[in-house]
């Protein structure tokens, strides 16, 4: 009986917890430049991993919640 390759199935189900800035911009439906401005102003939290600047998924939620609270 042949074994199924379960490793491939598990990899396909991994949900990202860190986004590249461009991915975060896409998720927020904002431009890349607006997203970088949010980062510079401190309104969108990021983390540094090596030379990469990444946006935690939780930071996206915090940003959206702050928008809702201001409305």
Structure, described:
The model has no long low-confidence stretch (mean pLDDT 90). The chain starts with 5 loop residues before the first helix and ends with a helix. Strand 2 and strand 3 (52-56) form a beta hairpin. Helix 2 packs across helix 3. Helix content is 55%, strand content 15%. It has helices at residues 6-12, 21-28, 32-41, 57-70, and strands spanning 18-20, 47-49, 52-56. Strands 1-3-2 form a 3-stranded antiparallel sheet. It is globular. With 71 residues, the chain is of the alpha+beta class.
The largest β sheet comes out as: 3 strands, antiparallel
Order of helices and strands: HEHHEEH
The number of distinct β-strands equals 3
Main structural class: alpha+beta
Strand order of the largest sheet: 1-3-2
Write the layout of secondary structure elements.
Layout: H1 6-12, E1 18-20, H2 21-28, H3 32-41, E2 47-49, E3 52-56, H4 57-70
Antiparallel strand pairs: 1-3, 2-3
Helix pairs in contact: 2-3
What keyword list fits this structure?
alpha+beta; three-stranded antiparallel β-sheet; 4 helices; 55% helix; globular
Describe the structure in brief:
By secondary structure, the chain is an alpha+beta fold.
